[in-house]
Design a protein that fits this description.
Number of strands: 6
Helix content: 40-55%
CATH architecture: Orthogonal Bundle
Shape: globular
CATH superfamily: Jann2411-like domain
Structural class: mainly alpha
Strand order of the largest sheet: 1-2
Strand content: 5-15%
Order of helices and strands: EEHHHHEEHEEH
Largest sheet: 2 strands, antiparallel
Length: 200
């Protein structure tokens, strides 16, 4: 059943990894791979890869029906739509019609349905649990995000060369970086070097 914590470990094809919390499961999903220059970051190569991604928190949806190649293809279409829509909102641009249509199409399917377990104290997803249900849940979360109070807090990392996008859920709304351990620290280091270079 769904946990509240978001975030995933992202791996750089050149080496190294870091923890990135996009602030929403749908945005975490948007960073599971990509198209064009982002294809090197692809993690969803086979249907089983999608099944494994969805089984992790916060979705925690263990498939009871194997993921199909068609569902994997649909997942990548939704992922790209979320990516495009998030970047458009972060840049204060109108959302492309294709992205809106893809998100709405995924959301039109039945979502994951919660079910109280026999002990009456824990919850799980009601079977059958299909990838289509999980994708609908992600798409619906993106709709809520884009139309809700945090819509204006969708941001791209402030680093010049980092395209990661997140929703700033912090109380002050002052988050600038994908992760302090990555772009935040790099910025601090550059600023320190610049100050030292100008000091007499």
């Amino acid at each position: 059943m769904r946990a509240k914590a978001t975030g995933r470990t992202l791996h750089d094809p050149k080496g190294g990894s870091f923890w990135f919390d996009a602030g929403a499961a749908c945005l975490d999903f948007a960073h599971s791979g990509g198209e064009g220059p982002y294809a090197v970051f692809e993690t969803l190569h086979e249907p089983a890869d999608l099944s494994e991604w969805l089984a992790q928190p916060p979705i925690a949806a263990v498939m009871t029906v194997p993921v199909t190649a068609r569902e994997l293809s649909a997942a990548k279409v939704l992922r790209q739509a979320i990516w495009v829509a998030a970047h458009a909102r972060a840049a204060h641009r109108p959302l492309p019609a294709e992205a809106i249509a893809a998100i709405n199409r995924a959301a039109s399917a039945a979502p994951l349905a919660p079910q109280l377990a026999d002990d009456g104290a824990t919850a799980r997803w009601a079977p059958p649990v299909r990838a289509t249900h999980a994708l609908s849940t992600l798409a619906r979360e993106m709709i809520e995000l884009l139309s809700g109070p945090l819509s204006g807090r969708i941001r791209e990392c402030a680093s010049d060369n980092c395209p990661l996008v997140f929703v700033d859920t912090s109380r002050p709304g002052a988050r600038r970086w994908c992760a302090m351990e990555r772009c935040g620290n790099r910025h601090k280091l550059r600023a320190l070097r610049a100050r030292r270079a100008t000091d007499p």
